[in-house]
Every structure is written in structure tokens, then in C-alpha cells.
Design brief:
binds pyridoxal-5'-phosphate, 394 residues, 2 domains, Aspartate Aminotransferase, domain 2, seven-stranded mixed β-sheet
Length: 394
Amino acid sequence: MPDRVLRAMHRPSPNIYAGELVEMAFGLIPDLKAVAQTRGHVAMYIGNGHAAWEAALFNVISKGDKVLVLMTGHFGWGWSNMAGTMGADVELMDFGRRSANDLDAVEARLRADADHQIKAVLSVHVDTSTGVKNDIAGLRRAMDASKHPALLMADCIASLVCDDFQTDAWGVDVMVAGCQKGLMVPAGMSFVFFNDKADAVREANGCASHYWDWRPRMQAEALWQLFDGTAPTHHLYGLRAALDMIAEESLPQIFVRHRVLAEAIWAAVEVWSAGGPIELNIQDAAYRSHAITSLRIGAPYGTALRTWCEQEAGLTLGIGLGMATAADPKADGFFRLGHMGYVNAQMILGMLATVQAGMLACKIPYGAGAIEAASAVIIGAQPQVPLAVLPQSA
Ligand SMILES: *Cc1c(COP(=O)(O)O)cnc(C)c1O
């Protein structure tokens, strides 16, 4: 989280009925749509990503509706669970932990659904557990090829403002995002973007929840209507600052920064891999997230390494989420590197050097020259890609 965001939040409680905050809150809407690359609608919620999952489902899915959930890791499974709890008839297509959605299989499944029982296809864009990035434009093409009318719903909680995501151009009907990842704001707000097609489904079916209903939020005229009660006042100031920073750097530049830093990480890991057990979880670079990298290193190395990095060097690495197996019930053989949002070259090089120090300390073998390989990627991208300084001022 940038200091600028935190500073924007550090202030007394504002008037929630009139004045500056009201204007500012409504001004967030066009800027949120700009980062989502949509001319559609957005509803804002007080809540985390799980809240946005549920909000999205309540508006377009009724009890008994069939939904097809594509699973490429922990988060596809999580969203499907939520749909099941709400009474949807959930069909899960599990593509494992190391690969993206198999779009031919999805197309075949949709063609087989001749009487169009499936009301929505749910897919995570970037699954934060496995580090896979699914091809959502390709998913739309597969749905169109099968002439299936289901809604396309995507989870961009980990990818928005990190990996390019073109809500309208890719034909996404409903998209969910949170504020605490690429949007660089403390956790607590989330967003559901939707188009007229999805809103027509909401109109036809009604919404079984008063709180999650996106219609009053979409038509809000007063601040309390935007959030169905008190607005998350300080989060709004933080989000305003974050959106200003994003506009100053520009979305294309942000995407390039994330790509180059991710490529630096992959280059380092490939060198380490040549001389030890560490391995990128997603082998095909075209399907790797630019915001999160999931690594396999073998039990108990993952946990040992995370513990050393946290306790001895102050670097927190991600746990091996959703990777547990009978042979490795606590996923001790996995860890994840987060590189989303407010990150620059020195942070990534520092992280890589710290991980390498951790492998040395834990006596985990690794190939030599990883920091040089990462450095070469960063040097090769400059000066076209400024990776040194992030916008800080104001
Ligand atoms: C973080 C995340 C979620 C869950 O968000 P919470 O804010 O933790 O509820 C869902 N999906 C993806 C892809 C995520 O990265």
C-alpha cells in the first residue's frame, strides 16, 4: 500500500450527508470503470472479495439455476462453493493446479447443453493460489462458438490493474474485483461490474437479497444509497488516491511494469531450477499471472523457507494455498511470491535476493546466477520501462 493512499485515509470523520465526500464518492465511478475497461455499470460494496462473489451471484442466479464453474485452483473452488450454498446447481470443471481452462472442453460442454440449462459460466481470471492466468477473451470465443447464451462471469480480484483485463472488449457480462490487490487500498471494499445483458437477467429474476442488490446502488443519488448505509468513508479517500496514482502512471505503463517484473522473477526461478528442487508451478509463460507466482519446492522446504524469510529477513511469502495433497497435507512444499500493485524493481530484486538467502540458510540447493538473470530482464526493459520510481508525491 502506497504511503500516499494511507496518508489520504488519515483524517477526521467527514460529513456523510453533504459536501466534499459525496461528490468525491460519485466521482470514483467513472475512474473504476476506466480501470475495468468498461462502459457498463459498477456497484460498490463494503466487503472483501468473497462479498463481491456473493453479490454478483445474488443478482443473476436464482435458486436451482445451473452454473458451470471452471476451476484452475483454490479460488474457482471457493466461488463454486458460494454458488452451491446459495442453492445453485453447480457443475465444476476442474482443470487441475498446473494449467489454464481447457477451452475446447468448455466449448464441448456448452454444445452438449442444447436446451441451455446453464445460466452462467464462472471463471477466475488469475487464480492467486496456482498463479495461472486464464484466457477470458478465448472463453468468450468458445461460448460464442457454441452459440450458448449463458452469462460470462469473471473474478479479477487478483488481476485488476496488474494484468490487462478488457471487460467490454472481451464480452464479460459480470466482473468482480476487490480493493486490496492491484488497487492498493487496505482490504474492505469490493466491486461488481456488469453490463446491460446481466442487468436484464437481474430485472427478469429479481434479486433475493436486499443488501447485495446492485440496482439501488447503480441508481444511487445519495451517498447512503451507494452503500445501503454509511459509506466506507476512509476507504473512499484511499481509493481516490489510488485511482489518481493509477491515472498518473497510466494503465498501459502499469501493465508493462507488472509484466517486466514478473519476467524478472521467472528468469530468476528458471536459473534456480537448473540446480535445485524449486520450480514454477505454471510451465507455459503465456498462462502465468503478472501479479503472483506460485512455486513448487518440495516438502518441507516451502515452509522452512517462508519461516526463514519472515523471521530472519522481514519478508512475508505466501503459503501454498490450495496445494495440499495426501502426501503433503499442509502444502509444505509450496510458496508464493506476491508482486501486485505498488511494486518496483528494487522491491523485486530485494525479494529475489532474500529468497535466495533463505535457500542458502535452509540448505536448499539452487542454480547460481538467478539475480543476474533477473537483473538482465530489468536492464533490458529500460529505459523504455521506468521501473525505478513509483509515483509518490502529493
Ligand atoms: C483474494 C482473492 C479472492 C478473495 O478475496 P478476499 O478479499 O480474500 O475475500 C477471490 N478470488 C481471487 C482470485 C483472489 O485473489
